[in-house]
Amino acid sequence: MNKPWLTQYEKHVPHTLSYPEVPVHRFLLDTVDRHPDHQAMTFNEIHFTYKALNERVNRFAHGLLKMGVEKGDRIAFLLVNSPTYVFAFFAAMKLGAIVVNLNVGIQGEELARCLRDSGAKAVVTLDLFAQGVYGVIKETGVKAVILHSVFGLEKRMPLEQGVPHPLLFQDLLASADSSEEPAVPVSPGDVAVLQYTSGSTGAPKAATLTHKNVVSSVLQSDSWVGISGAGNAAVLCVIPFFHVFGLSACLLISVLKGYRMVLVPRMDLMDILSLMETLKTYKPLSFPAVPSLWAAILSLPPEVAREHLSFIRVATSGGAPLPPWAHARFEEFTGRKIVEVYGLSEASSATHFIPFPRGGPIGSIGVPLPDTEAKIVDRETGKEECGPGQIGELVVKGPQIMQGYWNNESLTSATLRNGWLHTGDLARMDPDGFFYLADRKDDLIISSGFNIYPGEIEEVLMKHPKVKDAAAVGVPDRIKGQAVVAMVALKQGEAGDKQELLRYCKDHMPEYRLPKAILIRGEIPRDPAGKILRRIVRQEALGL
Amino acid sequence: MKELLTELKNKIVEELQLKEVNPDQLADDTPFFDRGLGLDSVDLLMLVALVDRDYGVQIFSRELGEKVFITLSTLAAYIEKMKKTK
What we know:
With 544 residues, chain A is of the alpha/beta class.
């Protein structure tokens, strides 16, 4: 296979890597051996060394064992970036249990579907989200709920009969009778994570990622950056661990390298204000972020931005294209480049990176990582390879690519063909091996790095008693990459009130999916077969 | 204060691209979040940038932010107060 991108690799990046046959938690064990006293994480002025972290991981693992958790059991996480996530993640890994990684914003039927589909036996969450879990628990097979109580909300939570009483995280840690390494054999081929992501039909789907997938992905990204000897440098962990980008670039890279994770939970809106103070205090070496966050920070006055960003050596951006002005400003303020990353849940995280540290063409998603093959194929059959500059579907292959979708063979065979992951992204490759996204093959909207299918918005709007029909599309947004605009047609005799509809959306969907605007029309444009004419909806949305 | 409020309304609508919001129709006590303007955390950071850039007022702490970023009026009052102390 012709790989023109190899000529773009920096000198420190090997064309191929050797991957140790180890489970994910080997990263933690090696770092505990090498740097037991390095700070592992900092959260609200509470600090844990790697040694202390590993001890709590083991205690939590023994607590889970006592509860009856076994290898292969699914444990759903509904957690923000917090020590609880880190303890629970590595405890699950050490037991060979499978982490069901869920966005904390999901609720109601969607949450129930994920818990049912994964067959989750237990849920680890915060008291903040407990009500949502208990609201659907009877519709799932969940047998235990482990709560980290932040506000003591569980004390005021009425529990229905027949539902499991919540176990407190702290109690579970305290009740563990050992802090030794659990003796559960875990193989690289065992499943480590079920990464839930939006599905085009509105039903969520989970990428099945093995320990080998995740380990490979982290080592590929690490080799690309190639920084060594940074000691106990800090990594600012703002991107949620429940997203593969955060899991890989914040949590797992940090543990691999013995870095200090500075956890920013974003439990509420005001958490973002602590970010600037945190930057100044911890002077992170690495700051992975999404374009919307970069755009917001880079909108600060130059002297403020310079003061807060000057020490960042590895500035990465993923989830959506970063606007050219943000690239220019970061370079102006720091003399360095923001390196864009392209990846997806189905690939454990990244498949493409812009060369680090030199940068690459603006607008490109970069070149494939070591041992990652990529090509552009015709969008109709997916069989014919396109030439340089031609637009087709981006397909990728490599050790980081998922095994398939959990419990969904038909979707797996449609997406993974002969080992190639069909991304659904339309793209082109230039003669130098740089890839550029053009559009989506389907109607996926990517906003602030989150995948949103129009069906997820339409389903909610259609449940509003005044709405007869609904359509949602993505429109370019300077900050978020894309924003959702919805169009609704009301039932006869109903009066339109956009604010009421927006409020309804706020009550029934996660924040990242909220439409930026709602258009009220007499009818939703559909073709004779009843299919929404999104091109027309998009034209109207763009005219706003 | 009234002048500052009008100016803030226009700037916020423009900067945050609130396409469906008419700044002239915004009440002074419109909340920034939830059932008011419905801003998210990134919008909040954009707002911090705007206030710093255009008024030289820095609000980089959660404690202060919780008191200031409630409604348009609370923000305007804080900017006024800081301008007087300079």
